[in-house]
Automatic annotation (TrEMBL):
Keyword Transmembrane: yes
UniProt entry keywords in alphabetical sequence: Membrane, Transmembrane, Transmembrane helix
Protein's recorded name: Mannosyltransferase related to Gpi18
Transmembrane annotation, as ranges: 28-50, 109-129, 136-155, 183-208, 228-249, 293-313, 325-344, 366-384, 391-410
Organism: Butyrivibrio hungatei
Length: 427
């Protein structure tokens, strides 16, 4: 009898537990699924992080840099400014030298934290644009599974996620019309890595067109439209100068510290990159070895394209709502990596990170170009990390990649000119 009573009490407890679990699932199933996806993304990074032989840069650059700081100390190390990065990344490698572990451990942790910050920013950006919390949250978490994101930080040990996360924070504030915060965070991104300059054109265009227009309530007064002063651009050099202070104080010298980006732009000649370094743009179509002849022309072509798009945006500024400005930010950055010389394999990281959820959530018309660009990116990573040189034909990959870019170019030009009827279709 007592055994029966005890069994009954145990069954009631079990039923209570089941009820609790089912209520939890009923209320928070979406959040539980997001946590499960984050766990899976973390597990992927943990498996990739310890692999150091596939990275073409870890054993040759990053580990020796950390070892240099271990042997010479941070002050002497920063005073000699080993490597070709600007100060914030040099400080990162210096700090890694203080930990009694292999350098890939802290580097992988930092890049993954920045990937998570990027995912949060993606959520914020698309929540502002769509008002759909779950769609935007899923978009942010899903970016952690994009191949180039997973491979870049944990497997390659690259740092593209670091400057990208600051760019995305800047774009979030831009869409919220917090312009000072926009330029401060963009200044941080620029101080981390020169490649963040590919998002500068959209800020210039936004200034010239006096802020956002038809997506918000259209008003005549520029101040009511919450435009911003040209003085806000001064945050970019100000933060760049402040970021260089650690090396200056350690004795590296003003010239060597603050001209770091100028020295980086000369690597086309000093390191023999040619017009392109394994990036799938149009210079793979037989133009790579003619950098001394074509580099200036490529830069001027890019400049001319931006003059045309800026003029078009000013004439049609009533069509520049927040969604179109985000699209414009993606396109201008993509234009830089397609047209400028000396682009590396990873330089479209931030472009694809924004293009992918944008196409899925807001612009299904460009789903195919987005998928093609991601597949081309995967092919480039396969070639670089997994030694698939024999399988990957770069001219063919470049043709598909440039075709995807041109399709998007035509689409955004029609959108800015107001030729497409209904603008956006949400998921």
């Amino acid at each position: 009898m007592f055994g029966f009573i005890k069994n009954g009490e145990r069954m009631k407890k079990e039923l209570g537990i089941d009820k609790f679990i089912k209520n939890l699932i009923s209320k928070y199933l979406f959040e539980i699924c997001m946590l499960a996806m984050i766990f899976a993304a973390t597990a992927i990074r943990c498996r990739f992080a310890s692999e150091t032989t596939l990275s073409p840069d870890y054993e040759s650059y990053y580990k020796p840099w950390v070892d240099f700081y271990r042997e010479n100390g941070i002050i002497k190390g920063l005073g000699n400014a080993i490597g070709d990065y600007y100060v914030p990344l040099n400080v990162l490698y210096a700090l890694c030298s203080l930990l009694p572990v292999e350098p890939w451990i802290p580097l992988s942790v930092v890049t993954y934290v920045c990937e998570m910050l990027s995912a949060c920013s993606i959520f914020g950006i698309f929540y502002v644009l769509t008002g759909r919390k779950h769609h935007s949250m899923f978009a942010g978490v899903a970016t952690l599974f994009l191949p180039f994101v997973a491979f870049n930080g944990s497997l390659w040990k690259q740092v593209d996620s670091i400057y990208t996360c600051f760019i995305l924070i800047s774009i979030y504030h831009m869409l919220k019309q917090h312009y000072r915060a926009t330029f401060i965070w963009y200044g941080v991104a620029f101080a981390v890595k020169l490649q963040s300059v590919i998002f500068l054109p959209v800020l210039i265009i936004l200034y010239i067109t006096e802020g956002f227009h038809s997506y918000d309530k259209v008003v005549k007064d520029a101040q009511a439209r919450n435009s911003f002063s040209i003085l806000e651009f001064l945050w970019i050099p100000a933060i760049y100068l402040m970021a260089g202070l650690p090396e200056v104080l350690c004795g590296n010298g003003l010239r060597r510290t603050y001209l770091s980006y100028l020295y980086q732009t000369r690597e086309l000649d000093s390191e023999g990159y040619g017009m392109v370094s394994f990036f799938p743009n149009l210079y793979n179509l037989g133009f790579d070895d003619y950098d001394s002849l074509l580099s200036t022309a490529a830069i001027m072509l890019t400049f001319a394209v931006f003059v045309i798009i800026t003029y078009t945006c000013y004439r049609k500024k009533e069509n520049l709502d927040k969604r179109t400005v985000l699209y414009l930010a993606i396109w201008t950055a993509w234009t830089c990596v397609v047209l400028l010389p000396g682009m590396h394999e990873r330089y479209d990281y931030s472009v694809l990170l924004l293009l992918t959820p944008f196409a899925i959530l807001l612009r299904k018309k460009i789903l195919w170009p987005m998928l093609i660009a991601n597949i081309c990116s995967l092919a480039v990573y396969a070639r670089t990390l997994f030694r698939a040189d024999d399988l990957i034909n770069m001219p063919v990959v470049s043709l598909f990649y440039v075709a995807a870019y041109l399709y998007v170019t035509i689409d955004i030009m029609k959108l800015i000119n107001g030729d497409t009827g209904e603008k956006y279709g949400e998921a």
